[in-house]
Amino acid sequence: MIRLGINIDHVATLRNARGETHPNPIKAAKFVKKCGADSITIHLREDRRHINDIDAKKICSIKRLLVNLEISTNLNVVNTALKIKPNFICIVPENRKEITTEGGLDLKKNKKKIRKIILMFKKKKIRTSLFVNPSIEDIKISKELGSDCIEIHTGRLANLIKSKKKYNQEFFRIKKCSKLADNINLEVHAGHGLDYKTTEILSKIKQIKEFNIGHYIIGESIFYGFKTVIKNFKKILNKKK
Ligand code: PXP
Question: If you measure from the C-alpha of residue 191 to the centroid of ligand 1, how many angstroms do you get, rounded to a whole number?
Answer without folding.
Answer: 5
